[in-house]
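Technical note accompanying the year-one report. For the benefit of new consortium partners, we illustrate the data format agreed upon in the data management plan: each record pairs a sequence with a structure-token string. No post-processing was applied to the example shown here.
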Amino acid sequence: MGNDVTSIPLRWTTSLSSKLTAELTSIAQRILMEDSNFKEFELISQGINFVERGTLAIGIQTPSLKTANCVIVGQGDWFGNYMEQGSSLSPFMFVEIEPCSIIHFSNRQIAAIAEKNVEIYKWFYSLSFESRDKWLQSQLINNENMNVRIVFQLLEILAHINSKKLPLEISISQQQLSDMTGIARQRVNEVMKWLEREGLVELWRNKISVKSVSKLAEYLDDVDLSIRDPREFL
């Protein structure tokens, strides 16, 4: 896949003039997450990003590197924010669930556009709402027991992956699921073994096969999903 992004149908988060979208497209850079030279933290700390393809988990970590909040983004989603140089940011972790191609807009080049075109601040404002519901619901779900937290994360992943044919396969290890939820790997294994005994999933090395999405979704029936319910996107 080449670096020319001028023909990509980007989903802008608000109406923008053709002049501004052309300026932004001219600075866009395609990044493949499997690139050995790629530094994940730069996606958050150094720009705004559009998911061209793939599925990605993004988690905020505490100083002890325990995940405090995690959201899933997929094709057509935006993440990251414009930040002034020198701004501090909490550490982030990434889990690539499906191979990702990211269109990256660097803060340095965005700043140059902002100096001449104030319309860009309209875009910044709209981006602040892009993943808000996901982050708020993720924080809310952290108050639930570990069974609910893991089931919720599995359903969020299923809501974003491209395949919809049963059984649905999620290319993720239990360690990665532990990293995403902040739950110890041993506890994650206990929950996954319980779901397997219930006939809802089948466990493989670095892969989870979901056999019944509807029955898995029933475990969230009594959970507060007032901000975002992933079952609505399945």
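Partners are asked to follow this layout when depositing records. The radius of gyration is 19 Å.
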